[in-house]
Queue: 2 jobs
Job 1
Amino acid sequence: MTSIKTSLHFFFSRCNLRKSTGKVDLFKVVTVPAVIFVFLLFAWMLGIYFYNALPAFIREGLSIYFENVWQAAEEASNEYYGLASAIWGTVYTSLIAIIIALPISIAYSIFVVDYVPKRVKNILIIVSDMMAGLPTIIYGIWGAFVLVPFLQKYIMMPLYKHLSFIPIFSSPPITGYSYFSAGVLLGIMVTPFASAIIREAYQMIPFTYREAISSIGSTRYEATKVLLGYIKPAIFSGLILAFGRAVGETVAVSLVIGNTFNLSIGLFSPGYTISSLIANQFGNAFIYEHMLPVLYAGGLALFIIGLIVNVSGLYLLKRWEEIVRI
Amino acid sequence: MSGYRLRKGKEILFILAISILTFVGILPLFHIIVTVFMNGLPVILERGFTFLTGTLGEGGIGPAIAGTFILIFLSSLIGLPVALLVGIYAYEYPDSKIGRATKTLLQIMLEFPTILVGVFAMSVIAIPMGTYSAFAGAFALAIILMPYVAVYTQEAMRQIPFTYREASFGLGLSRMKVIFKILVPLAKRGILTGVLIGMAKVAGETAPLLFTAGGLYQSYPTSITQPVGAVPLLIYTLVQSPSKADHAMAWGASLVLLLIFLLIFIPVRLSLREVKL
Amino acid sequence: MKTRYAIETENLRIYYGENEVIKGINLKIPQNTVFALMGPSGCGKSTLLRAFNRLLELNKDARVEGKVMIFGKNIYADDVNPIDVRREVGMVFQYPNPFPHLTIYDNVAMGLKLNHLVRNKKEMDERVRWALEKSSLWNEVKDRLEDYPSSLSGGQKQRLVIARALALKPKILLMDEPTANIDPMGTKNIESLLFELKKDYTIVLVTHEPAQAARVSDHVGFLYLGKLVEVGPTREIFEKPKHELTEKYVTGVLV
């Protein structure tokens, strides 16, 4: 309690509620509490995850993040859990997603800024925004009933049949619910986010720079390559933020990933992600004595991964913008 | 000359590649819209109006639609005041330490995994209350709504030309009055856009409702301290069921959700072009 | 103590960050006159003007040193609230800026309403009419008070802005190049308005046109690169400038 008091005191002394004349600035009195509330809310969220995950750490230690096991048992002392499968799945599927997002978002940005008349450009941008805002459950139902069967029949099966000596293609795509399907669906879902950032950066390259490149007689293709190099940090940043989005996605993924405790590099194996694990197992968790804290521990991991990814993405973007806008 | 030919050839290949990739990128949206229509329309047409007003037992998603509206309304009630105040603060003090920290926090919250917000709301509202409820769901949705509205509000205020700030302060008004009586009304349009976009986003959310709202589809909701359904939540449940009939229902509900989304999103997005002062 | 001067500055210095923009100015502006501040663009006229109603503080980089006395009272003293200053000193801007989302009536009334200067609707109506009459706009808008300013011409908008400022009954009116963005007809209207207004108000007019200063002002000050090069009655300055720079400026050699 005292630490909250001291931090509040610190906060208020920094925040000059009074104007130079000594009269109270009503504006601050009204808006500052809202700002404080939001900060406290965020801290509270983090706190809840720590607090509720603690029993799991005490019981199983940090190895909970590195073991792939899920032993729910009637006898409480026999319960044993590990989150490795979920963590792996989260990282793997999100990686697939940004591998897909990379070429598409770059191509889209170039196409929209350089090659297309204004009318079409506006339409393409609206389409991208729509894809960014579309309810994820709609992606989910389309993914589960349309995308998965399609991928399984036309991509996964052929690849498995002919190239299964390559490790990533070595698992049999029995149902189609897999890391691969989840990765593709996530790729489709997060591309608009990366596109928005890259497109904006590409558009804002100063005209003089573009002129300079054209003046040395390059083709548009060559010019584009150079311009892309100029915005490389923005591209990185866009992909990092897309990764952050992919990591947090829940319903769409849980409907296409198969929800199985695997720890495999095979693209066509089913698996879990942290978010789909939480979505899937939370209902169960109230029956077993020790499962709940483990799920909170998973949530905590997701919280921290998300935080690190998003903050670094934002930081990179801001740093680059500052350097470039001299 | 052949060197140039080669370069030109590369150029054509390049343009081809990026147009194909762009097409591949936007194709899913159209495919999704078409699929949802093709699978959902027959279901709705077959049952007619009952689909929209009937309970699950009657073959309809009425309670889910009602639940969605209740949740949008309640979460706005909870989230909008805070969002507007925070957005206005971020506009007025963009350079102070707190101002910049606020902007960063808002950006972080925009990208935050929504399932984590849902579980949080469950811990602090649903569990102490001992029940799933509309209130718990709305609380989770409010947390998700807040950063959208705050950021749009701040942006809308930033668009106001400096001369109006000078004119209002020049009349001897306090900061409170200048902002709330003159500048905020001037930014009305942009702020409203943000509110609508936030609401559209929140209407389509599923994960935050998984462990807070509970779901209620056999009868219409009557109390906010009791479980409530929502269209996205219903779809999620139905898709996981083994029954084909449930899947058909899910497609129908998806069409309804898609239409609600398009109906809010498209006008708002188009009007963004017209926001000028 | 009654002073002769509406505005008096004492070693006034203004900084933008590290940059000294106004370099030690001592100015005395008499009451009920039109005082013109002229000089080439970018030499700090608008900045100086904004020191007189403490509107400079809207810019975080600006810093003021020295004294500014409005009717004998230093407005930069520690116990002075800038809001009170701004009610005594009104301002008109370079781009006519009536609030676009308020009706013509409300534009004039808003300052009255929010500052609680009138007690009821009747008083408000009277004050609005008075202000619009004072700014020579009443006859043109009396039948369309509920219209929006977008339906007005540039000159009319500026007179609306003048009415908005006058409604608060300030003693001093600051005008920052008020006719810079208005057609010649509108400019003529506003310049004749000044002759009327100065009977009741002290007007400080920033202008980029020495000819305008010659036409409308009683006193004029020539500001060059942040320093007050010469100041005095208009006729004297224009007919017999003491300083070489002043002569160059009024004859159009220096721009």
Note: Chain C has a mean pLDDT of 92.
Job 2
Amino acid sequence: MSKPILEVTNISLSRAQKLVVRDLSFSVSGGEILRLSGSNGSGKTTILRALAGLILPDNGKVARLEEKLGNITTSSNSVIYIAHRHGLEENLSPLENLNFLSQVCTPPPIRDGVSVLETLGLKTSMHVPTARLSAGQKQRISLARLLMFDAPLWLLDEPFTALDTSSKKQLESMIDAHLDRKGAVVLATHQRFNCKSHVLKHSLPMIP
Amino acid sequence: MTLFPRAVNETTSRELRKTFRSPSEIFYPLIFFVLVLTMFPFSIPPVPGLFNSIASGILWTAALLAISLSLETLFKADYSSGALEVIHLSGANLVLVAIGKSLGHWIISGLPIALLAFPIGWALDLNFLTLWVLVITLMLGSATMSLTGSSISALTVGLRGGGFLLVMLSLPFFVPLLIFGSSAATNASLGIVPEAELYFLGGMFVLSLTVAPWATAHAIKIRLG
């Protein structure tokens, strides 16, 4: 059994001064996938934001272990967080959005924007302003970051929303490939999906 | 352009590109600037020489208000689309991103306003020396405003009433610029060389360049968390 990539001990989180998560602990190792489930408002997005390091827990500790795992070199940038919001500038094309990120990010990307967009089947729309694309296309563009950057931990917030059947299959195979490389995935979704590995589950209770 | 680090260049060119695709962001502050200036002649008694003596102060005030109003757009779109979050999590150096954003904002708002002040000041019968001093002080002053304002803009982005808060918080920082900028132009119109004022504005610019980008980077982290 490999060492955990992510270790969460007794965290409590609040959103807008309301406690949504109490004393949550889990750990995820390389090659494992954890699915957070729970009804709307149970704190799935809040947990993912805390795991990404965007918010600090009220109590407890989130530890992302930075070490060399398989063929993934970890570094300061050891997590990719795909949020609800697509995170794209609407006046710029998908390619311009990705190129900007690849220029400012540290460490440098492992693949360039053009090849990633081609892989995702967005070759024809890569020069169109993002505002003119559909919700599903925008979702696929935001998933491009998973292929562009090398990070052991993927945090996916409702990644299957708005995706068509073939894009959903592609994301499933991307997740499988990532797990094969001893990466780890934490995702929150209400949808059924197929995954070669065993999916760990954690259902969140509603805190009144 | 190899003058700046790559992250600064990239951020600035991203800002310019996205603004030129929806150019209303450039024209609104300029139109506001011109509109405020055209209101003054209606409200001032027709005493000979009166308007000429206060023209540079009015130009400076109008420029300051136009730039304050344009600061709100600096982070708004990136915050609400989640792009700011993506940039932060990609490990980008937020200090360099902040400098790039401020530079882009200055090219879009401060620079055109400073240049537009020349023909407008000329139409208001200011002499050439005054016009040059006015343009130079506006360029320096607006660059300082873009830097300082970016920190406050980042701190108030996404808040309810953030736009109002932004103007209220940034005006106190801009008052010294207004005092020294307009007095430089007024002194020039009286034939006094405004060295001291120009040094002060230069000093304020250097101070804001050394402090504001770090404050902006920190403010972005606070607003994302």
Note: Chain B has a mean pLDDT of 92.
